Amino acid sequence: MDHQAPHTQLHVPMSLEAEQALLGSILIEPRTFLTVASLLSAADFFIKRHEYIWNAISRLQERNDAVDYLTLASELQDMRVLDEVGGQAYLTSLVNNTPTAIHAEVYAEMVARTATRRRMLQAADNIRQVALDEEMPIDKVIDEAEQALFAVSNNRVKREFVPIWDAASEYYDEMEKLLEIGAGTIGMPTGFNDLDGLLGGFQKSDLVVFAGRPGMGKTSWMLSVALNVARRDRRVAIFTMEMGVEQMVQRLISMETGIAIKQLRTADISAREHTRLTEAIGRISSLPLFIDDTPSISPIEMRTKCRRLQHEYGLDIVMVDYMQLMSAGRAYENNRVQEISYISRSLKELARELNVTVLSTAQLSRAVEQRQDKRPQLSDLRESGTIEQDADAVLFLYRDAVYNPDTTEFPNQAHVMLSKHRHGPTGVVHLEFQNSFTRFKDVKKVNFELADISNLD
């Protein structure tokens, strides 16, 4: 049966005339269905009989049968809803009361708009219900409220045909970027050539874990990647729980200028360095970097902030420093293993929901210190084996100079060990760590001629 008049008294958004004119347009000119089908679904009709009619037309189109009021009546009869619709007489009235079939697309847009408004009202009702549930944690209330609103906006996204000239142009632009980056990198480049060759760049919807013992330089490596990514106009969200925004900015400036952090802390810089500082601040200020230093942030709060950021500015990669400093709330306060499992699973869900890369640093257990060989292993991931399961890639940072400062042959050398890679090979990459500026760089490769080698004797 149709929705009755009391609904209009409640100001439910709907347009009886637009729904009737749209269906009448299709009966007058059946080809218009192909034009409007991408704009609507049966659920967009407020009047139930119109939903039945739309479904019947869709079934006829799927079988490539002719659409007119006779074939439509027969289809509705087969669906056993012809009497509910109002019989052939109602179908005839749809045709007679339609001003013109030329404006079918306009009628469809009117129907779609009112359907969106009704969904917003339904979402508002759902939000009201969860808001009144005093037993539900406020973070959960906010998360469910945002999910309800995002469901409405996502319902409006319709995929259309892409002309080959647009697709080819976009492909060419992407190929130009790949050629600039270098062969083998199919995702978002890290900025480190050998690592990109092994990892293939960061992939959308992946959770990447970068782990190491304290003092190895995990945060510095993450910030080096953040700068490399942001310079390519990729939008980066950084959640830091170990240091504040000011400290993060100080590190970024040190990396960008080559001025030691110690000098920046004491403002002990020359006039030339002051010029470099001013220029660097200008460059960094223009980068699409967003920093949040909320301590012990929860996965739900992080997801809420990322949704807003993606909606307002767009988002390509989320960086977390570091996952063990996040909090899952009181539900897990007595079980640290379950809490970390929930956090790592939530980070993977965030990557998939927003279709972005999530890169999180992580601490390793003290078991590393008790071995003669201090190189990290997957079993060293602290407090939870589910981190390894949830991650699409696990990288470890190891610097021998941390353990052997006086005996190491290459004090600035760092090893990035790709120990798990769901999409490809594993391996080890060597980088240079510049301690004064807390930044990582590709190792410079020196090529010797044979004549030069012979002269070394």
Number of E-type strands: 9
* Residues in helices, as a percent range: 40-55%
List the strand order in the largest sheet: 3-2-4-5-1-6-7-8-9
Secondary structure tally, helices? 20
Sketch the major β-sheet.
9 strands, mixed
Low-confidence stretches: 4-9, 446-457
Mean residue pLDDT: 80
Shape: elongated
Q: Which H/E pattern describes the elements?
A: HHHHHHHHHHHEHEHHHEHEHEHEHEEEH
The SS-based structural class is alpha/beta
Q: Rg from C-alpha positions? A: 30 Å
Kindly, what is the distance between the CA atoms of the first and last residues, rounded to a whole number of angstroms?
97 Å
In terms of DSSP E residues, the strand content is 5-15%
Architecture overview:
The protein is of the alpha/beta class. It is 50% helix and 12% strand. It is built from 20 helices and 9 strands. The protein has helices at residues 6-9, 16-28, 32-36, 48-62, 69-78, 82-85, 87-96, 104-132, 138-155, 164-181, 193-199, 218-231, 245-257, 261-266, 271-285, 299-312, 336-354, 386-390, 400-403, 450-454, and strands spanning 207-212, 236-240, 289-292, 317-321, 357-363, 393-398, 413-421, 427-434, 439-442. A hairpin with a 5-residue loop joins strand 7 (413-421) and strand 8. The longest helix is centred in the N-terminal third of the chain and has 29 residues, at 104-132.
